[in-house]
Amino acid sequence: MINSSFVLLKYLVLLFLIIMIDGCRPSPSQNRGARYITTIDQDRNAKNQRSGDIDGDTGDTGSTGDSRDTGDTGDTGDTGDTGDTGDTGDSRDSGDSGDNNNLDNLKFKLPTHKEDSYLSSNEIRNQLKKIAADNPKISAYGNYGESTGEDLFYLRISQAVFSNKKLPKVMITASTHGDERLGVSTVLGTMMRMLKLYNDGDAKMKEILTDRDIYFVPVACPKGYDSSLRRIDNIDPNRAFPYEGRDENVRPGCIKGIMELFYEQQFNATLDYHNYGGMVMYPYGADKNLPFSAGSLYEQLAQEMGDASGYKRIGPISTTIYEAWGGSVDWFHDEGAKAGWNTCAMIIEAGSSKNPDVSAIPPEIDRNVNLVIHFSLKAPMLLSSTQPLNYVAKSHYSPTLWQGEDADYPMPFEE
């Protein structure tokens, strides 16, 4: 009897313990909620560690009246990534949160006609670094190699800097010829004016930085620019691009660098600034002809760019100025066609002299802002029948017409 009572008591204690344990256990729904809350907290922590990235959906232009982010740090870019796919090192600020489009006080130091008064390549480099540091949501400074011991550099402006969204790519260069310093001034001033328009809420600039990925290379050949020399080691850089019959080993480092950047970024459009003559030109500089369809498309865009700037000399390089073998425009066009990037490559001859008086610089910048905006919108899609990167070309855009005075640009001579 005693044994039976002991066994019964044992079972009752065991049953009581089971009931107590089961009552303390969370229900399945409670478990799901706990895991869900933990996931949200982890997401928030991860997002709070990220720096001022733009929203991952770059197709939404938002309000055109205010180009600034109001401080949402819960975006999709990861600041641990030091460069977009294919970049050689965009420099990104990891401490950004809130509004960082600090463009209100952007200034551009204009050159004068006095000796050594132009910004040096190092001063330009530092200026671009500061723009990128102050405005990390829409700009990134990067290096793409070196030449004669100096870094080759660019400033990239686009909302794609952090979104990693594949967008049509544009490259704008100057100072392939180092003695043509007005081109550098024009590109720098135009770039800063575009950034200011974006900061002011300009609808077209908002769209450009949402739909385009633009690389500015204001000093393509630093040694030539700092020395104000056309040739580097007795080689003309804009005759040193590959062409049939040329020795592939005879090429300055700055040209090798820009070729590598072109291959790496797969640009859909390039615009190379030279001076002088007030010209908008396209392939070919060498003695050959474009297929009619491409030639007519180039002619139409060049005319629109002329309308936007007031430049009157428009046409192929070889017939508008003189024949030039081994130039950047021919090579960018041909290599882009071979690779399937359908690169639209053009050249601007800005101004009326290589190193004009300071009073000539602001009007030249004025002429080129709308030219570059129009080029950036239309050129990347000009030669593509397949709409590269699945982007619908906005061919309905017409240029903002030049309203200033006509200029009598002298015809440059061949060097």
Write a brief caption for the model.
With 415 residues, the protein is an alpha/beta fold. The protein is built from 12 helices and 9 strands. The model is unreliable at 23-88, 91-100, 112-116 and 386-395 (pLDDT under 50).
Question: Can you walk through the features of this model?
Answer:
The chain has 415 residues and is of the alpha/beta class. 39% of the residues lie in helices and 12% in strands. Strands 1-2-3-5-4-6-9-7-8 form a 9-stranded mixed β-sheet, sandwiched between helices. Strand 7, helix 9 and strand 8 (313-316) form a beta-alpha-beta unit. Helix 5 (181-199) crosses helix 6, helix 5 packs across helix 12 (361-378) and helix 9 runs antiparallel to helix 12 (361-378).
Annotate the secondary structure layout.
Elements: H1 2-24, H2 28-48, E1 90-91, H3 121-134, E2 139-147, E3 150-157, H4 160-163, E4 169-174, H5 181-199, H6 203-211, E5 213-217, H7 222-227, H8 253-265, E6 269-274, E7 279-282, H9 292-309, E8 313-316, H10 317-320, H11 328-339, E9 344-349, H12 361-378
Parallel strand pairs: 4-5, 4-6, 6-9, 7-8
Antiparallel strand pairs: 1-2, 2-3, 3-5, 7-9
Helix pairs in contact: 5-6, 5-12, 9-12
